[in-house]
Design a protein that fits this description.
By secondary structure, this protein is mostly beta strands. The protein has no helices and ten strands. It has a six-stranded mixed β-sheet, with no helix packed on it. It has a four-stranded antiparallel β-sheet with strand order 1-3-8-7, with no helix packed on it.
Length: about 120
Amino acid sequence: QVVVVESGGGLVQSGGSLRLSCTASGFTFSTKIMHWYRQAPGKERESVAGISSGGDNTMYEDSVKGRFTISRDNAKNTVYLQMNNLQPDDTAVYYCYVPGLGARFVWGQGTQVTVSS
């Protein structure tokens, strides 16, 4: 059974930082690309960042480039999202996603990030 558990969200002021974590199980973590998504109120879920299985390649949505950093620790089955210079538009529920698992993947509960101005 595939399980992902996100944590690390909270309430911060504009310009602040948070580090999100996603711990996964039920598949071979070290062989899978991992993504962070977010969903703001009234909006569709969108991809924020992705990282290759070995951690050597990353990609970011334009609005977070230079502020967010995705990383992973394959020994701990965990992917991270370091978020700096947070802005009110970053307010959303953040989720991790594992492509390629088909129906085995179930979205986690996510972790709420709220940025006050």
